[in-house]
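Action item from last week, closing it out:
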Amino acid sequence: MLSLLRRTGCALVASAALALPATAFDTSARAAFVLDQSTGTILLSKNADQPMPPASMSKLMTLYIAFEAIRDGRLSLQERLPVSSHAMSYRGSTMFLDTTDRVSVSDLLRGIIVLSGNDACAVIAEALSPDGTEQGFAKFMTRRAQQMGMTNSVFKNSNGWPASGHVMSMRDLALLAKHLITDFPEYYPMFAETTFAFDGRAPDNTRNRNPLLGLGIGADGLKTGHTREAGFGLVGSAKQGNRRVIFAFTGLNSAEARAEQAEAIVNWAFRQFAEKTVAKSGQEIARADVWMGAEDSVGLAVQQDLSLLLPVLESRTVTGEVVFTGPVAAPVEAGQQIAQLIIRPSGLPEHTVPLVAMTAVAKGGFLNRIRTVSKVLLERLNDGPKPEGSS
């Protein structure tokens, strides 16, 4: 239920207060961002816009560009790509590729997603680079990220290998995850694959490092990351019912802490928040005074049912503030946007939605206009002159 307290004035404001605060999540991560994709609600933001070393989580950008190339016909899943000496030189997590290999794009993608192959990223990068080099591809990654709204991301390589100036923010990583999920639903199931045994050559590197897969909590992606500089991080997503949660965090001190934090975030996001109907279409929320109209006021309502993600411990009454400049001059058309409804859930970002006139109000006739003007003049006379020195 939406509760409003009306106050009069030229700019009309109606408001009320929430009874209980939202339950905050106390994360030990250096930076974190949690988004409810279904409603667009930001559930947690800690240093979310601070550029930080993303480690292997930046491989998601290489994957996104590869998926775009496949969609556009510039690359195919069956195409086999050569391995350069530069790609072969990478250490850390690899597919153990060498220069005698020609590897299918399909295997390279799984090598990146499941095995976190640094070498596989470099192979893809050199194939799609404007100048055939990984460095050139990194510059392309940065430009593409900027176009997508990832303003705190700069890439120096394709795989997150430690390099000065190679950074991403947690908000950028969550936005990238959202794009991967929504733009490429045909490829997203790869992120839930738990094993990939490439050519039998790396028996010790066949399992997906995402600790959430297989826990039965709806987790289906996306990428872990770890370097000495970055610490342990994860970009994850889970879906339960009609809700999907996307999150990114970094800076933990162990793989165990990363696993515990990821599971705790998923459980908190789904258990502590629920979608609730705040206002229904056709339900009068407030009234706006009408100037020189056939009616003195008009009812205001939302255009369609309004549901928001709210803390489960909230009272049934949530904050509502109706703001508009009034009185509204007649004529007024039904459905005309007149005001804004601002809802401020405790501990969450505010939501602003338009309010429209429920009915039409025609201009008043001569007698209505005379009555309105007379009423205003009478109110001013009753107020009388202000005492000297008053303000």
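Closing note: Helices lie at 59-71, 85-88, 105-113, 118-128, 134-147, 170-183, 255-271, 366-383.
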